[in-house]
Specification:
By secondary structure, the chain is of the alpha+beta class. The protein is built from 50 helices and 36 strands. Helix 30 packs parallel to helix 32 (980-1002) and helix 32 runs antiparallel to helix 33.
Length: 1477
Amino acid sequence: MTQPQLNEFIPPPECPVFEPSWEEFADPFAYINKIRPIAEKTGICKVRPPPDWQPPFACDVDRLKFTPRIQRLNELEAQTRVKLNFLDQIAKFWELQGCTLKIPHVERKILDLYQLNKLVNEEGGFDAVCRDRRWSKISIKMGFASGKAVGSHLRAHYERILYPYNLFQTGDNQPRATLTNDTKDKEYTPHDLPQRQSVQPQEICSIARRAKRMRSERGCVKSEPGEVCENRPNLRRRMGTCVAKPDPVRKTVKEETDEHDVIHEETVLHNTNNNTQSKVEQYMCLVCGKGSEEDRLLLCDGCDDSYHIFCLIPPLHDVPKGDWRCPKCLAQECGKPQVAFGFEQASRGYTLQAFGDMADSFKSDYFNMPVHMVPTELVEKEFWRLVSTIEEDVTVEYGADIASKDVGSGFPVKNSHFEVSPEDEHYLRSGWNLNNMPVLDSSVLTHITADICGMKLPWLYVGMCFSSFCWHIEDHWSYSINYLHWGEPKTWYGAPGYAAEHLEAVMKKLAPELFESQPDLLHQLVTIMNPNTLMNNGVPIYRTNQCAGEFVITFPRAYHSGFNQGFNFAEAVNFCTMDWMPIGRECVKHYRQLSRYCVFSHDEMVCNMACKANMMDVDLASAVHKEMAAMVQEEEELRENINRMGVVQTRQVDYEHLPDEERQCCKCRTTCYLSGITCVCSPGKMVCLYHAQYLCSCPLSNLTLHYKFTLDDLYPMMASVKLRAESYKEWLSTVEDILQKKDNKKRGLEEIHSLVEQAETKAFPQTSLLDQLRVVGLQADKVAVVAQQLLNGKRQTRYRSCGGKSQGQNELTVEELRSFVQQLDNLPCNIRQAPLLKDLLTRVEEFQQRSERLLSDDSPNSAELQNLLDLSLGLDVELPELPLLRERLEQARWLEAVQQASGRPDDLCLDTMRRLIDQGVGLAPHSSVERAMARLQELLTVSEQWEERVLGLMEASPYCSIETLDAALQEIANIPAYLPNCLQLKDAVVKAKKWLHEADALQLGGRIPVLDRLSELVLRAEGIPVRLDPLSRLEALVVDVQTWKESAAKTFLIKNSPFSLLEVLCPRCDIEAGLQRSKYKKTKEGTQTSKKSSVKLDSLYDVERALSESKDSASAMATLAEVHQKEMETLLALRATNESKLLPAENCCALTVCVCQKAPSGAMVQCELCRDLFHSGCVVATPELKYGQVWLCPLCQRSRKPPLDKVLPLLASLQRIRVRLPEGDALRFLIERTVRWQHRVQQACTEGLLEKVSKMGKNGSKISLHHEKNGCSFYTEHQCVPVQGLGPELEELMVEGFLLQVTLPETEQLYTYLLNKLAPLPARSSPCRASTKDDELQTASTKLHKKSGSSKPKKDSTIVQSKRTKRRKERSDSHHSEKAKKCCTQKSKSGGEESRRSCSPTNVASEPSASDSDEDYSLCAAPWCREPEGDEVNWVQCDGSCNQWFHQVCVGLSAERAEKEDYICISCTQPDFDRGE
């Protein structure tokens, strides 16, 4: 069964919540002072810091270990505790009577015995209620329904349980003290509050002043004297047994078993000792004085007095069970006063982690849901339900008042174990850091020297669900601030400071029993009362839920309490501002009335502040002055009173060096500082001047007044504070006079600065007047500086060219100057530059008048404009006329620049026009400027268009014709500007015309162009952006020439040959006596040398230059003939020189031969041309060189020496190209030279020169291949033609044959013939072999003679041509009838001899039907006719003017090419060509 349901808890209204900005949050006390008018009306308020203000948690979790307090919830509430105390008294009364109290049930509810007893007493007592029959009224007041006869039940329970107790309290003897219980009654377990909860908390802070003083107030209440007698046996007459009294056994609150239902085990002592028996016999009944009937003799468990059960009033029928107290002990036990209530310390310590696990487990188990899901409203209602019930015992633990000095603060502090990151260092200095707030400059606690835990040093609080802090106000009625670092919310309740006495009165009214034993109960933080109860009695209560990261501030004398919603960690500290000081003095008076200890001396704090008056804030000085005045007045009165009382002995002491305990008044416990009274009879004791009579019984004249300061010391201290406060007032009055211009006489600027400096030096408050004074001073300084600069001209930043000022220069306008001068008059102070500024204003006005006259002129002179602008340089004022003057000046200068540029069109480029236009755009509008701008813009537009158009013409692909460009140039000629693209176009057209003229002149009159000139024209054409029609043809010619040169190089040049094609084809010009070859380098130095000597032909470069500069082929041939002649002369001389080396007279050791230039030795080879000797190892000689084969040295073997039939097509293809080049002239000369050499060989055969050699050979001696000279032996591996056997003509003929770079059969035959004749092989072979040799010699001679027969003079070419034409017309062969003009031999598939002969004009002479063999002689018109033989000979006829026939092989044509292309012989292409006829 449960007790009647309590009313549901109604939450009080919310307290104000403030959310400061970062600017407001910067100064904590300024912000608290700002919100104080609002917040102090509710007593508490909540402050939410800016969202980004999140200090790191700096507490060392591992180091933090604490022992919490045990809190039983229903013992906290005042009214509930009163009921529990009453029930404990009833239970104790019946326990001492040997009975157990059991609380009855009425209407299925536990009967409230306290309320029943209170109502009966209010109605006049048991007898009055019974007499007036008011039990029904009492039942209705207790909440029972009427008409159910509950009153009779209440009477019976009262009479059975309460009435004997009340009779005992009044001292009347009850007729019978017997407690009978119903089976339905619930046995009551006493709480034993005084014994259990008076356990004091351990001292966790060495300087915890409050804890020490609270402990000394309460005293020790754990044991009572006389309660236990250790040496006296607790004897009770029970069948002759002696029962020993055991120590009382206590159980913890969390145990479910009853604490006091302990059955004392009876121990039967079978002791037969006579001494013991004699001790029992000496106990006598205190009523009858007899010791008889020992079995009915009772021994009191309290005092061991003996009573017969029948002697007691009323008498007892049986020996009672359990403990028994005699009437004297019963009165003594039940009459004890109640002891002070306090919290019990837990039996174990916790770490933060362990406490959190326990707290979370408790909450989740209690509400049967996760901790974070429990609504705060549910926890709040359940808390107030639990504290109001006596039936449910819920116990929690609270880690309160943990000193941060020992375990560390949750905020970061300097020199701690916690490492603060750089971005969090500002939290070390933050005013909202609770370690800093009490000692800020604006906090008066700064002037308390001692560190006070909880006030100057923060305390930590670790809470769990339902753990609470009871109604209290802060020590000395100071402010407090609490910060919740993390965890679940903390619910707060608060009452404003003006309602503090009302709240105390209500609590005393509702629980007077508690205050009777503890007058300062509300200062002990152990009592709570339901806010609804207080609100119902008129006390204003406000609430709030403090979440993590939020502050809760309590204001002076504001009662507050609350509880924790769950596991959390908070930190709190006190602080005091200057508005608190009068409140603090009232608190000390209040403490004196309650005899409560002070945490610190208020007078000591005020005196410490007065000693620093010079640096004190003036507002604080004003408050301190009031405190000093009250303190000094009070001290003066007290000392006068003491003096009148007769205390004359005085002594000055230094109270700072005494601990607080030694300077406390032993009467009111106030800490003495200014003075105190002592006596020699009571060392260590002191009283304040209010309680001098309470110190001792000695005469007052024996007492000694101890003082800290004399009154003469206190007056100057008060005066210094007053001076600090009043100096500010004087300063304030002076500043007001200056700012309000109350005095007609202006102050100087120096005095303004002096006042500002005084405010800063004396740290006057930052009021609006000081700000205004600073503004006035700054304005006056600026005005003075500007005025001085204007007067000195130091602000001149103008440039001469435009006569203007730099941009961004903030200068005074004329109107501003006028107002500036007016401002000088209006300033509350004087500056010395004012008269000079007035003069400046006068000069400015004169300048404006001149400017107006000049600007009114239509064509002002630029010099006058410049002079006026120069005049403005001395006026450092923003003149409105200056822009117009500068505009006119810039316009005039711009027009002059335009006119100057237009007068020089050759220098008027596009950039100049653009620059002038850009400058003109920036000018102010004017008719002349606009006209000039229009002309410039038009010229620029036309010029840009033509530049772009011309650029397009030059970059067109393909290039434009020269006629188009000429037309464009004619249009451009009228533009008066410098146009680079147009000039480039003009230059290109001039170059194109010149190029075309040169190209036309190149082949004018059938001329054949020279390759160098042609290449130079093509190269020049690449840089001319004009379409040149002849260019493609010239480029094709150049390509053909390059192709021809490549073909010729493949034909003549040996692989990796060091010689160029021209070197091979030209006669040799590098033959020197030393055989040193001058390499051909076409360099710049060679070019300069060629310019100096153009006649010499000493090098290949000279020859090439002469050929390139020759006008026609004839001059080129003459040049080559000259080189050829020099070649022959030089080579013959070289041969003679080399042959002379082999003469016996020569010194072999001094002889140098070969390319290595060493002496001959061993196997040597001899060049057939230069006749020089070479070591076989130094040159590459044919290993199998046979007799009759020619060996030439590397210098003489210059080319492949192709056969003539491969060389002739090269000349023919070059003739078709129709371009002269040095290589072509050289090739042509080579062929002509070859033909001439062939004719000379034939002529030599005809004239019988060979027969002369035969005779010389027969008569000559044999030439040995072995040589020995001066001890040097060498031999030649190859036989050469001896020079001695040759005549000059034959030697020259043979040398020239070897010089020819063409392979001819005549060369080999001539060499073989001469070798056989002059150096025949030794006769080692048989006669048959000799005859064979003779046959070979005869064959060579026959071939040479045959060649000579074919080289006799030809007939006239015209007769031959007419005859050949006539013969061809007469022939009816089908093959010739198909040719029309050109003749190509067709191969006869039938293979008939007759058809082949008919196709070959060469073979016509061999036919039987040939009429004239002479006509068939020399049918091929080529002078170098190779007389081809065979079954087929192909012919071709010239398409030029001569119509002659040629062998295709002799002119280098193939059958297919002769079929497709026209052929013109060299005689028709080059009229000056000499056939060699």
